[in-house]
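Handout, section B. The chain below has 109 residues.
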Amino acid sequence: MAEWEINKGIGRTVEFKGLKAQYLFIFAGGLLAVFILVVILYLCGVSQIACLVIGVLGATLVVWQTFAMNRKYGQHGLMKLRAMRMHPRYLVNRRTVYHLVRILKSKKR
């Protein structure tokens, strides 16, 4: 008879080697982009050593930056940072106080 283990991770975010949530996609996408860049450079005739150096440096940079962002911003921090940048820093009202008072008086009548 087959034995089934209980999945106790229901409702949790996916985690791989400490990377959580959107950082997994950034990590995988970055490494894929570096790989495609190396393949394109190799097909264009760039030397193998240059392609290897670019690939290793690019992959190292992607891994380092992804883990650094994961440590700095946490699971939802990067999305919060993007949302914060979408909001204006301050609101500007160019109407004079006299004009605003006049509008309020006309609404009361």
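Note. The longest strand covers residues 15-16. Compare this with the example in section A.
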